[in-house]
Each structure stands twice: as C-alpha cells, then as structure tokens.
Amino acid sequence: MSEVIFILGGTRSGKSRYAVRRARALGGDAVTFVATARAGDPELDLRIVLHRASRPAVWPVLEAGADLAAAVRSVPADRVLLLDSLTLWVSTLTEPAQGIAWEPTVAEPAEGIASASTLAERAEGIAARWDALDAVIRARTAATVIVSDEIGLGMVPLDAEARRFRDELGWLHQQVAESADEGWLMVAGLPLRVKGAP
Fold first, then answer.
1. 51 included as an active-site residue
2. pLDDT digits (tens, 9 = 90+) for 120-142
3. CA–CA distance, 79 with 71 (Å, rounded to integer)
C-alpha cells in the first residue's frame, strides 16, 4: 500500500511548491504530474505556465478529466504521483455535463446542517468517485502527493452554488484526510503538519 500525502492551503500559500519538493524527495525524476486544470481561461492559463516552470521538465504530465481513477491507473505503479489539484477536479465534476447531482433534492438545509438526501447525493457523486480513486492510489507501490485548496476558512459565500461547491470540497477533504498518511496545511509558505507522526 502506497503512502498518501495530503497538502491543503489557500491561494498562494505555497502548497504546490511544497508538493513539488515532497514529490521530488520521494521520487526524484520518477514522478508523474497529474494535472486537473483545463486550459481556456486566460488567468488560469498563466497559472498553468507558472506551475509548469516550477517543476522538473523531466516529469511527464498527465492531463486528467472527470475520471481521475482511470488516469491514475494508467501511470506505472512505481512512479510517484503528484496530483494537483482536487479543487479543479471537483469543479470539473460539478459541471452539468458530468451528471453529478448538484442541486439538492429538498430545500437547502440550514448552514452547516446536511440533510439525509444531500448526504445521499454526495455519496453517489463526488464521494463515490473519491472512493474509486483512493482504491487505485492504495494499490500503487509509490507515494502519492495530493494538493487541494482550503476554501472553507473564509466568509460564507453569498451564492448558493458557491456554498454547495465549498461544502462538496470540504466533505471531500475530510475523506481524503481520513485516508491520508500525512496531512499538511500550508500557511504563508510554511508547512504545518496536521496528521501523521513528526
């Protein structure tokens, strides 16, 4: 069973830089970068270029779509994986074309309280896809470094869709953190260990 390192942080917290450092220490040149960002937005395109320049050019890049488990399965099990990021993967999954229920089947529950139907929808959608991905990751021999944005520390979004996205990502983070061997929260470029022995 492979080691899973989960790195969370806000925008410009240093999470991707730290993830590259950890992946390089674990795999050297034998690292595959799994990208979930999709080009097409000028601001995101610039971020993609900057991220690409910050990691070793010898690392192959696998651009993954909604079926992240299939993408990870295609990488040799003895290569370290750097998956960046879960945030953009969830964004892809919640697009109407992906078929994951986004609207609750009942009135949106009060802030912080999930209804049974909302939890059931989550279990059938994003959470089920994480379970499939986690099984593939755990069957690998090399380590996996997973990056995601912590978006739940700020103000409650005014928009209902943004609140649902924040909730879905937060639920996913809980699943990933539970499965991970190490958890790190990046603050101002500093890695703070939140799970795993020092």
1. yes
2. 565 468 989 999 999 999 999 99
3. 13
